[in-house]
């Protein structure tokens, strides 16, 4: 079997409030997306990285990494799940059913290479998909429309899902198509796999695998990357 990686990078980064989409903002001497790609291109068993881009994307072709022959481009969709589906349809034409598909957000550049490859190795020999996740550290409040506290949630057993998430193509493509067909809200691939009734493993992930979402996340990511790489 081979590994195909999908990088959803078609978002506009509304919460980042910057002119440039956040995947193209500078981070530790490259762009956010290049930092992410630098890690992913060193994945074990890698066949190809399929990057989903916004239809109006003007920036990807200017990146040095765009010349890498292992990279393919697809047009993204309205929601993240649509972008992932478009990539899956391209992969389906080239892959075997028992090939693996790993999805990783463009906006998570602090994933460490050793962890990525440990994650891949821990799932690749089996048949069950899995995700990187971390136990929730904060106290969780359910809050109403007027910002009033309604309840304190018991956080026992609650984990925050991250990417990478990895599944066989044979499980992920029909599960995602089905979830989209019934209008299910899908914020990660695992939820579609769960809805299809397939078992999934959780691999404990680090809290420094942050997703760059808001302006204050960028300097944090810069610190994390510089500390990781010395
Ligand atoms: N993404 C995508 N296609 C979409 C929406 C998002 O490929 N239609 C990608 C983003 O580029 C990002 C990842 O999915 O790498 C995670 O999404 P998020 O952090 O929400 O990014 P944005 O949607 O760009 O940001 P925002 O929600 O603040 O607009
Ligand atoms: Mg979004």
From TrEMBL:
Pfam families membership: IspD
GO annotation, biological process: isopentenyl diphosphate biosynthetic process, methylerythritol 4-phosphate pathway
SUPFAM superfamilies xrefs: Nucleotide-diphospho-sugar transferases
Keyword Transferase part of the UniProt annotation: yes
Pathway connected to this protein: Isoprenoid biosynthesis; isopentenyl diphosphate biosynthesis via DXP pathway; isopentenyl diphosphate from 1-deoxy-D-xylulose 5-phosphate: step 2/6
Residues under site feature: Positions MEP for the nucleophilic attack: 155, 211
Entry's Gene Ontology molecular function annotations: 2-C-methyl-D-erythritol 4-phosphate cytidylyltransferase activity
Reactions catalysed: 2-C-methyl-D-erythritol 4-phosphate + CTP + H(+) = 4-CDP-2-C-methyl-D-erythritol + diphosphate
Homology family: Belongs to the IspD/TarI cytidylyltransferase family. IspD subfamily.
Protein name: 2-C-methyl-D-erythritol 4-phosphate cytidylyltransferase
Organism annotation: Simiduia aestuariiviva
